[in-house]
Amino acid sequence: MTLADLPAARTESDGTAVVRLLSYNIRSMRDDRRALARVIRACAPDVVCVQEAPRFFRWRKHAARLARECGLVYVTGGAPATGPMILTTLRATVEYAEDVLLPHTPGLHRRGFATAVLRFGPSSRLGVLSCHLSLQTDERQAQGRMLLERLAGLGTRHFVAAGDLNERPGGRTFRRLAKELQDGWAVKPWGGEYTSTPQHPQQRIDAVLASKGVEVLGCGVPAGLDGVSESDLRIATDHLPVLAVLRVPPETTTESPAGPTA
Fold it and tell me: What are the structural domains of the chain?
């Protein structure tokens, strides 16, 4: 299957938005940056949930450069979220954005969430959360619970979490998330399944998880990208990207919540 098999991004006559969302661990842009930009551009995403964005010296410059080279704009995340980041096209109107630091376990890398509420067209609102969960089992489970709480607090009827879960689908945290949310690959598999490692893909530890009201039109590792070689996917970073096409219904005036809650 190629990218042409997926529906194009659009806003339908009833206000429903078809949104392309890409989740990608970019390993702090330590690999081939040109290949990375080629991959992202070829996926033609409306939203990119990044993990391991630059977060140290001159991180803003690096984030801005990546966004510019991919035809996107920076929304939130990077260093303030300790790695997760959200980029979008100008199609998305940003209603709200917040970086969330999670409780820190001494001796482990501190984690965070990049979150935003995005509007597509006149009335399709989508809460978005980019995450990179812990390598440590107990901490990862706690972060999974906080992820669900944070999504529920975004104040949107429809929401999606995307990122590197550091766990396969059979793991306890992954199963808990997939019970509450739709696992995009399990609902509507498209393209490839395994995301790690690019040289020898054999495990799925990256996922796009959507709330029940969002229709998943396709989700998986993209193949047949125009202008992108198999070599590009291997040298861009140490993960393969996950592309999901989501159909987000509009919210009526009476249905639309006031906004994010504490």
Answer: 3-248 (3.60.10.10)
